[in-house]
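User: Structure with heme C, tokens only please.
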Amino acid sequence: MPSYRTIAALAALALTAFWPAARAVAETPAERGRYLVESISGCGNCHTQRGPDGAPVAALTLAGGALVDDNPAFRAISSNITSDPETGIGKWTDDQIVTAIREGRRPDGTLIGPPMPFEVYRGMGDADVRAIVAFLRTVPPVRNVAEKSVYRIALPPAYGPPVVSVTAPSPADHVAYGAYLAGPLGHCIVCHSPIGPKGADFTKLGLGGNSFGGPWGTSVSSNITSSKSDGLGAWTDAEIEHAIRDGVARDGRKLMPPMGFDYYARISPSDMTALIAFIRTIPPR
Ligand code: HEC
Ligand code: HEC
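Assistant:
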């Protein structure tokens, strides 16, 4: 007869072998959407107001009304994206919300303004954008009339041709999936490439240098290329992870917003591995 220890060991083996797979299969679209919105995508970093302590106000989760940017070109205030039918997006169909996220167009045909990062959101995979919509449906309605944004620049007629269908890369391909996380899902490369009048300049991908003003003062996005002197080339994976997850730089300095540390702390270990694998491939600048 096998000993108790053998049985326990076999049971543990069976659990580690089958449990992760079983969990992956059991993840519903709304659960996947919650993971994205509350981690790598960090929609609340713009769509949830912060309290005096700088932390997102839970009672106003995704209810908008946060002043995202005030510059000579525009004064942008985020919209209420809870399921409230009057002040949120509760009356929009799934397809209308998908179009708003990927193409920046509302059901009434008007364009949604910057800095919502449409240059990368266009590349969100069909399953992921639908998962985000499924999750947004579960967000409790919050009645909150967000102040209107003011755009002093003319918005383009569109951010590009209609998005028909997008297939996300396989998570098994770490570098390709990391690029998908840093672009379409997480818009890291938008803040970390020089932003000009036409949006982020990806010919200088990762160079940083954008200034962001707020209650914290002014922060400047870092060079995240693999340059050993100016970028992350000399950092270890653990140091890069610590900066992204905890907002602490290699020299121990506490990093400032608007990088979404509150959200990035929840990035899964496998997504973090892919993200760093991609960052390592950005040519030094
Ligand atoms: C960098 C800041 C930023 C991020 C990140 C961001 N948004 Fe936005 N979003 C905005 C701003 C600002 C507006 C309002 C722009 C305007 O007034 O035209 C907006 C508008 C919207 C609208 C239009 C709502 C309406 O009533 O007009 C939707 C839907 C939306 N965002 C969904 C999302 C989702 C989902 C995410 C995450 C995947 C997200 N946003 C991430 C800044 C952001
Ligand atoms: C909304 C803009 C914004 C977004 C989105 C953003 N960052 Fe940042 N990031 C910044 C700013 C600004 C700093 C510098 C903060 C400081 O110096 O206090 C920074 C700092 C960093 C650092 C520290 C580098 C150093 O030299 O200290 C790393 C690493 C980094 N970001 C990676 C990322 C990754 C990966 C993502 C996506 C998951 C991301 N960032 C998304 C604005 C952003």
